[in-house]
Design brief:
Number of helices: 7
Structural class: alpha+beta
Strand content: 25-35%
Bound molecules: 2-acetamido-2-deoxy-beta-D-glucopyranose
Helix content: 25-40%
CATH architecture: 4-Layer Sandwich
Shape: globular
Distance between the termini: 9 Å
Largest sheet: 6 strands, mixed
Radius of gyration: 19 Å
Number of strands: 9
Low-confidence stretches: 1-20, 264-271
CATH class: Alpha Beta
Length: 271
């Protein structure tokens, strides 16, 4: 997602992944798990280690000392991908609730409030049409790895909402297109939509509109340095460094496991 666009200020973020995750020891670590009761067909969040889980996560909020918080989410391959995605969203929404709320207040809480103005109506219509098209593609391409992953993304976003509000439902990939969770995902794209959908006052993009990064492996593969300079307002400074370790398959009906471990640095854009 294109998120590094507006730029009053240039930030240099420089860190060693090893050190970053090493910091986990220094601050209080919060843990949460999502369990599944198959008889009741119900997912729940618990904070003490259960016998079995669908997703689990560690979270450490060190924003006050290092400007970073860290989230590490792992899912259990014994459950199907939809369950894993929804539970991963739930556990993240539960653990990072406070930062999600702060980030929302800092960035987009007043973007579209009811009663919607003409631009927000246009946006709602556009996003609803787009989402309906995505749903059609998902249902018509059930064995496609691409659409499978698109569905899992929406499922995870729906799970975030459930974990944040504490109201887990049946696993689903429904989203509220002008709701907090979808708008937070969209913010980089909104800048382009604003022109097309006639927003009277556009969000300003300052500077050149580009940013740069460097990835360097130290001799002997000893360490990995990741540096990025980006630009955005100070209101986007609440950061969560996320590691997702999901045991997804190529499609819902496939049995190949393609373990995905990847790092994401986001300004609480969530997925
Ligand atoms: C960070 O500092 C703020 C302001 O003092 C405080 O309200 C908040 O609880 C602190 N957060 C953590 C995770 O310590
Ligand atoms: C995933 O597993 C759950 C629980 O067993 C089941 O209700 C759901 O239908 C399954 N989803 C898919 C897409 O197979």
């Amino acid at each position: 997602m294109a998120t590094f666009k507006h730029l009053p200020i240039l930030f240099l973020i420089f860190f060693q992944l090893q050190k970053v995750f090493g910091l986990l020891k220094e601050n209080e670590l919060q843990k949460a798990f999502v369990t599944y009761d198959s008889k009741a067909d119900k997912l729940s969040i618990v904070t003490s280690e259960p016998i079995d889980y669908v997703a689990k996560a560690d979270f450490q909020n060190s924003v006050n000392s290092t400007c970073w918080s860290y989230l590490d989410v792992t899912t259990n391959p014994q459950y199907n991908d939809s369950m894993q995605a929804y539970a991963a969203g739930m556990v993240e929404g539960f653990l990072t609730k406070e930062l999600i709320q702060y980030s929302w207040q800092n960035t987009a809480a007043d973007y579209c409030t009811q009663p919607y103005n003409q631009y927000c109506k246009n946006l709602q219509k556009f996003l609803t049409q787009n989402y309906n098209w995505v749903k059609t593609e998902i249902t018509q391409n059930f064995d496609s790895p691409f659409w499978h992953n698109v569905r899992l993304f929406y499922t995870q976003v729906s799970g975030l909402d459930a974990g944040f509000t504490g109201t887990p439902k049946q696993v689903n990939y429904d989203v509220d297109v002008l709701g907090m969770f979808y708008i937070l995902q969209l913010s980089g794209d909104l800048e382009d939509l604003e022109s097309v959908l006639h927003k009277p006052q556009k969000s300003h993009v300052l500077g050149s509109g580009s940013c740069s990064a460097i990835v360097k492996l130290t001799p002997g593969n000893k360490d990995l340095y990741v540096a990025q300079d980006t630009w955005t307002g100070f209101n986007e400074m609440l950061r969560v460094l996320k590691r997702y370790n999901f045991a997804y398959r190529m499609s819902e009906t496939s049995s190949d496991l393609k373990h995905e471990t990847y790092y994401k640095v986001l300004y609480l854009k969530i997925v």
